[in-house]
Amino acid sequence: MTVRYGSAVNEVASLSSERLPGCSVEHVQVDLRFPDLPPAFDGLRIGMLSDLHIARRTRTVDALVDWTAAQSVDLWAVTGDVLEGLEGVPQVARIVEVMRAPLGCFAVAGNNDHRCYTLPEGPPALFREVGLPLLDNTHTVLSRGGARVALIGVDDPYRAKDDLPRAVEGVDDGLFRVLLAHSPGVVFHAAAAGVRLLLAGHTHGGQIRLPWVGALMARSGVRGCGRRMAAGAFSVDQVVAYVSRGIGTSWIALRVFCPPEVTTLRLHREERRDA
Ligand SMILES: [Fe+2]
């Protein structure tokens, strides 16, 4: 198993960030290159929100609504923990309402979504209520210019509710595979499932980071998913993973050298640097 981090990940072309007006959230822009991306998907833009942890209307929620409405992306991915309490439901719906993308908007559930939304139906009812299609151990096929890409989503791996073999059942061999999962530890199974790109959150970047050191804790809940996998890009074999620092907080309402993040990713069909 080959693990690479940060700039050593061959597929990472560039990474930049800028602060959203009026709040502490950073917009991180990531360019990724894949030699096997179908040509019709070259330039694909993905908007990504993770770990919103919304409990009520705040200035950050208003800023997120404005930022989301201003984005021009092809696909939206929401990687779980949208909620911190039931009063957050209408606020999440405000954000979903302004998500526009020709290929659609898709979500996976996080551990908090299971905890906060305890109706018998659980997260499927929550995501239906906010109007966000949920990939619940299943997949969909994205079509563009006559080419296809599989978008796979698993239920929360942190609570071992993920079932990746079931989620990829019926995906055609050879399709470029993108996986959405709440927590990044699933990367070790994703390699065997032919996944090329994993988008995840859950770690909140560790919440407390030190300059030159990074996250003090990964909080992934998975052995082998270390502190260096708490934020940003890394790869495990052919799987390129990008982990968002997310927006909210959980175990302690504190972030140190770890600003909240919204992300846009652009995928390019390009050769690897070491090819
Ligand atoms: Fe979270």
Describe, in plain words, how this protein is organized in 3D.
- α2 links the parallel β5 and β6.
- By secondary structure, the chain is of the alpha/beta class.
- The strands form three sheets. It has a seven-stranded mixed β-sheet with strand order 1-13-14-10-9-8-7. A six-stranded mixed β-sheet has the order 2-3-15-4-5-6, with no helix packed on it. It has a two-stranded antiparallel ribbon with strand order 11-12.
- The chain has a single domain, classed as Purple Acid Phosphatase, chain A, domain 2 (4-Layer Sandwich).
- It contains six helices and 15 strands.
- Bound molecules: fe (ii) ion (FE2).
- The site of fe (ii) ion has 9 residues, from loops.
- The site of fe (ii) ion (FE2) has 9 residues, from loops.
Key words describing this protein structure:
single chain, 275 residues, alpha/beta, Purple Acid Phosphatase, chain A, domain 2, six-stranded mixed sheet, 6 helices, globular, binds fe (ii) ion
- What's the oligomerization state? single chain
Enumerate the spans where pLDDT stays under 50 for 5 or more consecutive residues: none
Strands side by side in the biggest sheet: 1-13-14-10-9-8-7
Please write the string of helix (H) and strand (E) elements. Answer: EEEEHEHEHHEEHEHEEEEEE
Bound molecules: fe (ii) ion
Number of self-contained structural domains: 1
Question: Radius of gyration, Cα only, in angstroms?
Answer: 17 Å
Distance between the termini: 19 Å
